[in-house]
Amino acid sequence: MYDMYQEVILQHYRTPKNFGPLPDANREGEESNPLCGDHITLRLKVNPESQKIDEIRFEGDGCAISVASTSMMTEKVAGLTVEQAGKLTRDDILQLLGIPLSPARIKCALTGFAALGRALHPGPDPPAA
User: Fold this and answer.
1) Residue 117 near residue 126, CB atoms below 8 Å
2) What CATH number is attached to the domain comprising 51?
3) Structural domain that includes position 54
4) Residue 48 placed within a domain
5) pLDDT tens digit sequence for 38-73
6) What is the reported pTM?
């Protein structure tokens, strides 16, 4: 089972979902993990009336865990409302990966999640990841 999860992670790393620019985004969040060199910029196109996330894309560089978890997260968040996406927890994101992670790798896995928090809650102090 562990091998299957590793293959899924590698697949999301090699061909991440929702990767690329989103020129008409109206929300953006950015996060870096200097310990591993991960840097993720996440952009959302949120419908002003319904607050639904119509599109989500990310760009950046990172390790396999960082890119794969961000890719998986964008699939989970697409189509949700800002409120629904804001209810995701760090444990929800870690469960997407399906493998145990060392404390150092947990920060990698949560880089995209922290960027999502900044995009969902723009301002000087977004909720902690």
Assistant:
1) yes
2) 3.90.1010.10
3) 2-120
4) yes
5) 999 999 999 999 999 999 999 999 999 999 999 999
6) 0.90
